[in-house]
Design a protein that fits this description.
This protein is an alpha/beta fold. The protein has two domains: 4-15 and 90-219, Rossmann fold; 17-88, DNA polymerase, domain 1. It is built from ten helices and six strands; from the N terminus they run E-H-H-H-H-H-E-H-E-H-H-E-H-E-E-H.
């Protein structure tokens, strides 16, 4: 189990989550795709609170609440639109080259994702490189920022790893909790957000910068 591990959040970090939700919202509500994306982004963490529910249910319930917030009519069958489209959401263009370089450098790659096993199995077919391990919300019955994903990875792989660095776009779901847990972390700040960058060991604007950032974090 020893080795050097890079763990990744998937949606927003590797997969263009915003494009997937916004495009689906545009199909449901022509002319309101951006508004749907904003509402969905605000509401999803709220839906994930409380007793654990499958991510398929999170997607559908958050879609309902977003439509309600925007006073948009949602047909009952359309509540599962994101469930239908998520397997087709595209990776960011910078993912393939960066991850291929890191694998060539000897890094093992893992996904720590807030989704179900079935969804990530379909999504992995779109990722341009293979991953060595996956921890899903379904596996740990919790959603980040709950530390269950990180604790599960640590118990299986991290405790024997020579190096472990977590890489993620979401400050709320990933960077803050890994800071609190003392896990090395790289913030992929794709949206130019204004959160405190000092909570991350490195901050990058996209994955093209990741191989260099990883070397910097390892040396520090």
């Amino acid at each position: 189990m020893a080795g050097r591990w890079l763990t990744f959040d998937c949606f927003g970090t590797l997969i263009d989550w915003r494009h997937g939700i916004g495009t689906t919202g545009e199909l449901l509500f022509p002319g309101r795709g951006d508004a749907f994306l904003d509402a969905y982004s605000t509401l999803e963490a709220e839906v994930e609170e409380g007793p654990f529910k499958p991510y398929l249910d999170v997607l559908a319930e958050t879609t309902r609440r977003a439509a309600q917030r925007l006073s948009l009519e949602l047909k009952p069958d359309d509540a599962t639109a994101l469930v239908a489209t998520i397997p087709y959401w595209r990776p960011f263009a910078d993912v393939g080259a960066a991850l291929a370089e890191l694998r060539e450098d000897g890094w093992k790659l893992a996904l720590l994702t807030n989704c179900d096993r079935d969804i990530i199995a379909l999504t992995r077919r779109r990722l341009p490189v293979p991953f060595d391990a996956v921890v899903t919300a379904e596996d740990v019955s919790a959603y980040k920022p709950n530390p269950a994903h990180f604790n599960a990875f640590w118990s299986i792989f991290g405790s024997a790893a020579d190096v472990w660095i977590h890489v993620a776009q979401s400050y709320f779901h990933d960077i803050r909790p890994t800071h609190e847990l003392g896990i090395s972390r790289i913030w992929v700040n794709r949206q130019g957000e204004s959160d405190d960058p000092s909570l991350a060991d490195a901050v990058i604007g996209g994955l093209a910068e990741l191989p260099r950032a990883v070397k910097t974090v390892v040396r520090s």
